[in-house]
């Protein structure tokens, strides 16, 4: 295992044509590889605009199996460019059973495994419980050609338990493919605080677990258009802001709020070792005292 490898994040906007979005993703994987990335992560559900802004049973037709067209295209891109690719897919597991799934594709084009999003939101314009069955594979880490990595998905980023359980399996980097943005009516009053909370909680995962964290969001304004069919409502302004931080929470690279960008940063396992030796949070955990964490609340 290499002591150093580079992570690339593809912050992109998504249009109404799924095939065009996949083609863009394939091109961006190639661009990131040219910039030195060994692992490339794409945003959540990048194949389409964010369709969860409305509940529409016809949109289940957007789902696909794994392996399927999107993972096949990204597997070829991974093999051609000799990079690991993390691809977020609307997975059709069976008739009536669908997941929000991240596929980890190794640098030879083989699928190392999948992670199914565990925490599913149900908020205005984020009606994911209508579409996605909660994940049943648990939290996972994967050995890849670059190194041992873990991926969670979007809403998972607010839960320290998921980050901890993935880090405890030896992941050196936690990836969070994401689709998050501002409600236009709320942005002026709450937008800065919302973004700051999002950034802070994920930096905290890096600090608490002594790991690198890589977060990739989409950018642009969307009404959830699918093949040109405009959804009702005010839409979402996806806030971009993709970033990579080290085990001390230091931000190594960060994207703008409104542009398509590729971020590349180095993961240094020696740095990870140094931070954990000086801030030995994993060593000092009181695992004998944590059993109540499995309760919903402690009455």
Specify Rg, calculated over alpha carbons: 18 Å
CATH C-level: Alpha Beta
Distance between the termini: 46 Å
- The whole-number mean of residue pLDDT values reads 96
How much strand?
Answer: 25-35%
Kindly state the number of beta strands.
15
CATH topology, by name, is Nitrilase/N-carbamoyl-D-aminoacid amidohydrolase
Order of helices and strands: EHEHEEEEEHEEHEEEEEEH
Shape: globular
Verbal overview:
25% of the residues lie in helices and 26% in strands. With 299 residues, the chain is α/β, with parallel strands linked by helices. It has one domain (4-294): Carbon-nitrogen hydrolase (Nitrilase/N-carbamoyl-D-aminoacid amidohydrolase, 4-Layer Sandwich). The strands form three sheets. Strands 5-4-3-2-1-15 form a six-stranded mixed beta sheet. The chain has a six-stranded mixed beta sheet with strand order 6-7-8-10-13-14, covered by helices on one side. Helix 1 (18-34) packs parallel to helix 2 (69-81) and helix 3 packs parallel to helix 4 (184-209). The mean pLDDT is 96. One of its GO terms (biological process) is putrescine biosynthetic process from arginine. This is Carbon-nitrogen hydrolase.
Keywords:
299 residues; alpha/beta; Nitrilase/N-carbamoyl-D-aminoacid amidohydrolase; six-stranded mixed sheet; 15 strands
Q: Could you write a compact summary of the structure shown?
A:
This protein is α/β, with parallel strands linked by helices and 299 residues long. Helix content is 25%, strand content 26%. The chain contains five helices and 15 strands.
């Amino acid at each position: 295992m290499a002591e150093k490898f580079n992570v690339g994040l593809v912050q992109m906007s998504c249009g109404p044509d799924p095939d065009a979005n996949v083609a863009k993703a394939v091109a961006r994987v190639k661009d990131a590889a040219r910039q030195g990335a060994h692992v490339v992560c794409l945003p959540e559900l990048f194949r389409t605009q964010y369709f969860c802004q409305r509940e529409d049973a016809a949109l289940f037709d957007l789902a696909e199996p794994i392996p399927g067209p999107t993972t096949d295209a990204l597997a070829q891109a991974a093999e051609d460019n000799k990079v690991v690719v993390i691809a977020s897919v609307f997975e059709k597991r069976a008739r009536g059973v669908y997941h929000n799934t991240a596929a980890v594709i190794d640098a030879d084009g083989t699928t190392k495994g999948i992670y199914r999003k565990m925490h599913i939101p149900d908020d205005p314009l984020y009606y994911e419980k209508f579409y996605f069955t909660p994940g049943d594979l648990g939290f996972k880490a994967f050995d890849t050609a670059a190194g041992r990595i873990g991926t969670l998905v979007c809403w998972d980023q607010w839960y320290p338990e998921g980050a901890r359980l993935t880090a405890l399996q030896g992941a050196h980097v936690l990836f969070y493919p994401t689709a998050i943005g501002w409600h236009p009516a709320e942005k002026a009053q709450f937008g800065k605080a919302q973004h700051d909370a999002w950034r802070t909680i994920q930096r905290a995962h890096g600090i608490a677990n002594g790991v690198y964290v890589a977060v990739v969001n989409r950018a642009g304004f969307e009404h959830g258009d699918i093949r040109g069919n405009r959804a009702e409502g005010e839409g979402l302004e996806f806030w971009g802001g993709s970033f990579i931080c080290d085990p001390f929470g230091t931000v190594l690279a960060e994207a703008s709020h409104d542009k398509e960008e590729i971020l590349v940063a180095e993961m240094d396992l020696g740095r990870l070792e140094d931070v954990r030796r000086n801030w030995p949070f994993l060593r000092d955990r009181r695992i004998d005292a944590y059993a109540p964490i499995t309760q919903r609340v402690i009455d």
